Structures
1.
Amino acid sequence: MAERGIIIGVDLGGTNFRIGGMSPEGRVSDVKIRPSAFIGEADSAIGALSGGIARYVDEAGINMDEVLCVSIGIPATVDKERKMGHSVPNITNSAGEHVLDGVNITDGIGDALGVVTFLNRDTNNLLAFDMLMNGLYGEEIVVGCYIGTGFGGSVHIYGRYLLGKNGVANEIGHIPYYKGEDYCSCGKKACTECYASGRVLKLIQEERYPDEDIAQIFVRHAKDPALVDFIYACALPIATEVNIFDPDCVVIGGGVVDMTGFPKDDLISQVIENVRKPLPADNLKIIYSRQCRDMGVIGAALYAMDCMGMQFDPNIADRIRQSAF
């Protein structure tokens, strides 16, 4: 018999705070979006977060007794116990300070709301969504690469997300580029994100096409050498993941990849060019994520179900498609 109740999923980004409810059967409802700035503006980040969740529950007409758990995804390195973020650079106060660094999010929200709370890196939640929607949970190794403001990655291996000794494994956005000289926002030199990220794409647009909308940059200028180099830079970390893990499937997604005119075929060609021959190159499966505005919220709920040992309903993917797309 299916478990009844609602899982509250939260996708906490530097720009937007997305929150919604999902039943264990996969019915998604009442996803709301508000600017994330309210967290940095508050005297207490945990107070703001728990208050934002409580406000959502109240406005959605959900009784707190119906809430099975809260599950939050953040764009940050997360400790192995999945309680706090070591570095959450996109959630800041007016002084630019990282208000969630080293803060015990799960216990803080759990105590404030009286509900079990889970925390995960946002890219793991995105991969949870993509694996479900593409029927990949039976595969041994699945690699996710997400090119958005930064360059995020996730690896699902032998039924678990790869965490590492400290919980911060697979920081693909911070693989060093050979002899690179640019400094990353993390403070390290020559990270992937210095050459392959939405931030870099914005710099290219501002320098070369300052009067044009960045949303059209690939439609109008895909053959510009700067953008050709950008695609090559995006391909290298993906190829590195393939060469290390020899995965059953690679999922590529993110806001940059979803832009109109993004040269998806060129990216795949560059990945294959830089992958070991003959294998895994000759047997490489790459798919693109089917973008859904609420995929971070849904992925957070799916991660919570996994943590709680819930079995996925056989029709859960279909129900998600019906209610979220």
2.
Amino acid sequence: MFKKYHIVIFKDRECAHRHLRLRSGWLVLLFLLLVGAVGCNVWLWSHLAKGRTLEHQLMQSQRTVEEQNAQLVAMTE
């Protein structure tokens, strides 16, 4: 059912190598973890962007309220 994969990493100058043996089950698990990490990052970035947009809107609203308060004070005087 699950195949075995062999990964060989060669070093240039030393003519040495490393040999890794992985079963496909581990590769599937690593792939799913990578997809999950990417998905979480996308979700977090979207919430960060939404928070920044709301913060910008709040600052604009606060400026508008301050301007209106100044106008009301000027009108009452």
